Amino acid sequence: MSDILFKTLDYIFSYRVAGICAQNGKVLLQKPSDDTSYAFPGGHVSFGETNEQTLIREFKEEIGADIAVGKLRWVGELFFPWGKKSCHQICLYYEISILSGDTPTEGMFPAREQLEGRSFTLEFHWVPLEKAKKIEICPSNLTDFLLKLDGGVELFVYREE
């Protein structure tokens, strides 16, 4: 499968989906083992794949979990540096629930990730919702959105210089 990820000499375009898994007062977040900032788990959509199929595949590959995909909650237009290039990413965030699998329901657990031909370790953390404001979540404006999940779909633009 080929990810919807385009590169030019100066820019990168990325189409990604992410899962918002909040249960028992905690949210599931991921981060590279060598980084301090967290993100919502997910991945790049492949050509011919629906957003739901992408989330199901990514959660199965990364943490061995079978999931159900719920409502679309956030639509993000993200602008940030990707290495030495500028990235423009469209990311759709869906509520998800874990149905089965050997996924731990608390603490931290590692997983392997592949991106652009390199492999690295991702850490998955169950973060208590009350601690979400005390950690760095990218994009940073999602912390406020996370605390009001009962609303409708939110569109946001995030620019990191």
Question: Which key terms come to mind for this protein?
Answer:
single chain; 161 residues; mainly beta; Nucleoside Triphosphate Pyrophosphohydrolase; 6-stranded mixed sheet; 4-stranded antiparallel sheet; 10 strands; 11% helix; globular
SSE order and pairing:
Layout: E1 5-7, E2 11-20, E3 22-23, E4 26-32, E5 42-44, H1 51-63, E6 66-82, E7 85-100, E8 108-115, E9 118-128, H2 142-146, E10 154-159
Parallel strand pairs: 2-7, 6-10
Antiparallel strand pairs: 1-2, 2-5, 3-4, 4-9, 6-7, 8-9
Description:
With 161 residues, this protein is mainly beta. The chain contains 2 helices and 10 strands, in the order βββββαββββαβ. The longest helix is centred in the middle third of the chain and has 13 residues, at 51-63. The protein is globular. The termini are far apart.
Given helix and strand content, the structural type is: mainly beta
Question: How many separate structural domains?
Answer: 1
Please mark out the parts with pLDDT under 50 across 5 or more consecutive residues, or reply none. Answer: none
The percentage of residues in β strands lies in over 45%
Enter the CATH topology name.
Nucleoside Triphosphate Pyrophosphohydrolase
- Provide the helix percentage: 10-25%
Helix-strand pattern: EEEEEHEEEEHE
Give the name of the CATH superfamily.
Answer: Nucleoside Triphosphate Pyrophosphohydrolase
Rounded to an integer, what's the Rg over CA atoms?
15 Å
Largest beta-sheet characterization: 6 strands, mixed
CATH C-level name: Alpha Beta
Report the average pLDDT across residues. Answer: 90
How far is the first residue's CA from the last residue's CA? 32 Å
General shape: globular
CATH architecture: Alpha-Beta Complex
Tally of DSSP β-strands: 10
Please report the number of helical segments. 2
